[in-house]
Amino acid sequence: MSRAVHPGRPSERALLTDPVRYPESAQSQVRTKRAFMLLLLTLLIPGSAQIVAGDRRLGRRVLRVTLTVWLLVIAAVVVALVNRQILVTLFTNEWLSLVLIVVLVLLALGWAFLFLNTLRIIRPPLLDRGMRPAVAGSLALLMLLTSGSLGYGAYLLNVGRNTFGSIFQAGPAFDPVEGRYNFLLMGGDAGEDRTGRRPDSISVVSVDAESGATVTFSIPRDFQNAPFSEGSPLWEVWPDGYNCGNECIINSLYPVVTQEYADLYPEAQDPGAEAMMDAASGILGIEVQAYILVDMAGFEQLIDAMGGITIDAGGWVPITSTEIPGTVPKRYNPPSEWIAPGVQTLDGYHALWYARSREYATDYSRIRRQQCVQAAMIAQLDPATVLTRFQQIAAAGTQIVETDIPRDQLGSFVDLALKAKNHDVGRLTIGAPDFGEPGDLFSTYPDFDLIRQRVQETLAAASPVASGGSASPDAHGVLGADRVAFTQALPAQTATGEITEEYLHQLAVNQDWATLESLLADNGECTPA
């Protein structure tokens, strides 16, 4: 039955001829424009299409939700500009992130429902046959753009939530010591020829709690006589320091404590790591508060997940082959491959070898390469990389990273890491050439008063007050005259470009190790590219 219209009611007659709400009497071009207009309204202002052409009650409810979401987004932007730590904490907190995941899922489902409701309002049978696929395709694309993005955001947030829960521990937050947070960073290696895991890469990362200015102190793996404070449980075992000779190099402390003295750290999940923190604190004269242990066996997975890293290598680095039996010191058969100097994009396999290769080079060169790889990872782990490769990075992280950093403090440390990217990284190696010269016995008989003095000088040089707001030591850290003499001693031919992989390989075949060690003395030179 047709609806009767009273001739004295012009407003009702106009309502029936409104092409937006009543498209039946409109021309085909108007219906097409109406369809795309309603889709655009649902995209930009969800709920507005229902108010102008559909269920107004539903539209008003959705519009209130839309305005609330926009207000929250604006508030989040303001918070990010004023104090982004609060925002980071929201995303990393176990329960708040769960609430956010649920909200994102509900918004994704609600927006998808709204687009389907808009399609009902459009009434596809009223459209020309040729325009129906275009409208349907546009709706599907917009649903993927909106609901799909929200759903993917919820998925990434859930992956991050699970990752953080697997890596970081529950526990009380800790305060900075003298304005700095000090973390022990170790690269652990549990090879078949070893008893337990040994941290071959040992460094303390000291970060200014306000500015993020960072200094890295590298400790050679063969460092001896590490002292312990009277407050350390290890004071009872080694009151005169870890000084039982060549067996007591610092990287052996981890497995020794894990296997023989774990009861000294009854509440620790990793007694070996706690012992290494005590040793690093005693060596440097600063309090190390937390540790991060990276399993080197899975290190290449993380690099691959990042899409590789780019460095500017200063010298040739061998990928070591098998050991020659009975050689003292250890010697190896000719390398199977070489990493050439210059700008290189390294995948996980080559980055791992670049960081750990030790043949024909000093421990100092190896430490420098490890520092360079660490700096490259920090510099190149940008937001675009994290978003596009988040799942792979998270999966690799749960397999290779162990830490005692409390989860509730993760937000503040992520914010601090973002600040650290604005500063150069100061570096000091607790061994040659920063202390003594390559080949001497400083790591065997260290001068701890001198070490602690240089540590404080390096921290002072890296402070924002000392450097005018940015830590800016030279590219190699605070090194002094020892490093200048070391650099001047490099063979001149390394600068000529005449060295080739074939030439180096032939030297290795000839077992001309002295020449190889001379030519490769600069292979610790490296900068992130």
TrEMBL record:
It comes from Arthrobacter pigmenti. The lineage of its organism: Bacteria, Bacillati, Actinomycetota, Actinomycetes, Micrococcales. The keyword Ribonucleoprotein does not apply. InterPro entries: LytR/CpsA/Psr_CW_biosynth (IPR050922), LytR_CpsA_psr (IPR004474). It comes from the Bacteria. Belongs to the LytR/CpsA/Psr (LCP) family. The chain crosses the membrane at residues 35-53, 65-83, 95-122, 134-157. Coiled coil: none annotated. Keywords: Membrane, Transmembrane, Transmembrane helix. This is LCP family protein required for cell wall assembly. The keyword Membrane applies. Residues 198-381 form the Cell envelope-related transcriptional attenuator domain. Pfam families: LytR_cpsA_psr (PF03816).
